[in-house]
Amino acid sequence: MPAQQFPISEIVAAQRPARKDAARNYDALLTAAREAFAEHGSEASLEDIARRAGVGIGTLYRNFPTRRSLFESVYADEVNALCRSAVEFAGLDPWEAVTAWLERFAGYMVTKRAVREALEGESEIFQACRDSLYAAGGPLFERAQRAGAARTDMEFGDLLRLVAGITATAFTDDAQRDRVLAIALDGVRAGR
Amino acid sequence: MPAQQFPISEIVAAQRPARKDAARNYDALLTAAREAFAEHGSEASLEDIARRAGVGIGTLYRNFPTRRSLFESVYADEVNALCRSAVEFAGLDPWEAVTAWLERFAGYMVTKRAVREALEGESEIFQACRDSLYAAGGPLFERAQRAGAARTDMEFGDLLRLVAGITATAFTDDAQRDRVLAIALDGVRAGR
DNA sequence: GTTGAACCGGAGGGGTACCTCCGCTACAGT
DNA sequence: ACTGTAGCGGAGGTACCCCTCCGGTTCAAC
């Protein structure tokens, strides 16, 4: 058993089928879906996803009976990877740790065009994703608060929305994105 | 001629048809489209928009030959109203003026779910909208910069993206939205 | 190598969206 | 009031998407 588990980890692992060909198709579908969702939002065509994955539409439906279940799996997969990465930053300076993790949060969320919906989804899996994110990033932020590096009149949830909102926006170039993100984080740092 | 004109103003006025019944339909379509775009993003069904407006699909297509032209008109309409409102705030304290206008920006942009696309659209009208927004809000921001109330290592465009990103995000309640927006604006205020 | 269970692809029925086209309606100018 | 014209609605062809179902295929356990 690993040092730290997140609510989402087991769920993700349990989904993948055992048989070799089935597992290959499952992976191809997740990859194709991640691309399609990133490109067209959560309304992407399921038949297109199956085509991208080089798989029949029937195979898609066998693995993911509903559009929502497919989206949940893609999202859970990304959240899982993101949570596992939080452990790496535990040793850094408190403020550095928060910004480093948020940087990764901003990058990993390929599905960001649809994250807003997910952040308030009601299903069990979205709930587990939220819990996992809080379990992974929350301690980093609270440590920064205790160290006097982050303002204390806000919650970790506020910070996630702030970063999610900014990174979901289209910028003229990456430099502008980083500039704007840094400005917003200055607001978090300031304290008051 | 009004005291101040924005590039978008004439374009908006020129679109509306002259005949009475046609003008009524035009208005109904704009209203219905504003709602539908706010609800489903810029991919909203055109037939649904016509239904909401109580108008035949043919009438929609006569007024707006393409989906893009309809979206442009809705967007231009909102930008126009927003720009005209900037004049009201010219008398306030420099920082107050900026935040008051941004508050309205955040509220008016009912089409916000799709604003990101519009902020980098290539068409003539999107260009005019951008120019209008800069002409309306830019001076407020630069005045705040000269007064030492806003940091000078950023541009007005950065500020717009920042606010647009945050307000396009779903929050659990309005209080959280205001809290997050205030935090981000603290970053703008801080100076450095 | 055999075998049966699990898995596969994609045809096809039903639905919805896009857009065009044309017979009908209602406005506005005389 | 008359009338020509600008404007109207919606039927219908085409295309795509959703989802089910089933005959054929591939895996893995023996």
Subunit arrangement of the protein: homodimer
What pattern of helices and strands is seen along the backbone of chain A?
HHHHHHHHHH
Instruction: Name the shape of chain A in a single word.
Output: globular
Hey, which two chains have the biggest interface? A-B, 33 and 33 residues
| Main β sheet profile of chain A | none
Mean pLDDT of chain A: 87
Percent in helix of chain A? over 70%
- Straight-line distance between termini of chain A: 42 Å
In total, the number of strands of chain A is: 0
> How many domain units of chain A?
1
Detail the poorly predicted runs of chain A. Answer: none
Return the CATH topology of chain A.
Tetracycline Repressor, domain 2
* Second CATH tier, the architecture of chain A: Orthogonal Bundle
Number of helices of chain A: 10
Structural class, from secondary structure content of chain A? mainly alpha
Q: In angstroms, what is the radius of gyration of chain A?
A: 18 Å
Output the CATH homologous superfamily of chain A: Tetracycline Repressor, domain 2
Proportion in β-strands of chain A = under 5%
